[in-house]
Write a structure and sequence with these properties.
This protein has one helix at about 60-85; strands at about 5, 10-15, 25-30, 30-40, 45-50, 95. By secondary structure, the protein is an alpha+beta fold. It contains 1 helix and 6 strands; from the N terminus they run βββββαβ. Helix content is about 25%, strand content about 35%.
């Protein structure tokens, strides 16, 4: 389970046996959601946040923080997904404690 970011206590990671579409999981305590990235001609055109069976979805401020983080860091997340699953490279973990405005 490669961890790629932690933002204000929300852990963003991939499961080792992931599948397309490109997506990332966000977990805070017992809550977990995933964000799927839809890419057309090399550009992210949409990000959909979805619930995961068996988990309570992120909510409230945690969901909002997750959404803001995805908007700002979406390209880096997709690049880490490609590096890990396509090129089989290790990905660097980054911890961000400053709120994005």
């Amino acid at each position: 389970m490669p961890r790629i970011f932690e933002y204000l206590g929300i852990l963003l990671f991939f499961y080792s046996n992931e599948h397309e579409p490109i997506h990332v999981h966000g977990k805070y305590g017992e809550y977990e959601s995933k964000a799927e990235f839809y890419i057309v001609d090399g550009k992210i055109v949409e990000i959909k946040i979805k619930s995961i069976k068996g988990f309570k979805p992120l909510k409230g401020n945690n969901l909002k923080d997750f959404e803001v983080f995805l908007e700002v860091y979406s390209n880096q997340i997709v690049q880490k997904w490609i590096d890990y699953f396509v090129y089989h490279k290790d990905v660097e973990f980054e911890k961000i404690n400053t709120k994005i405005k």
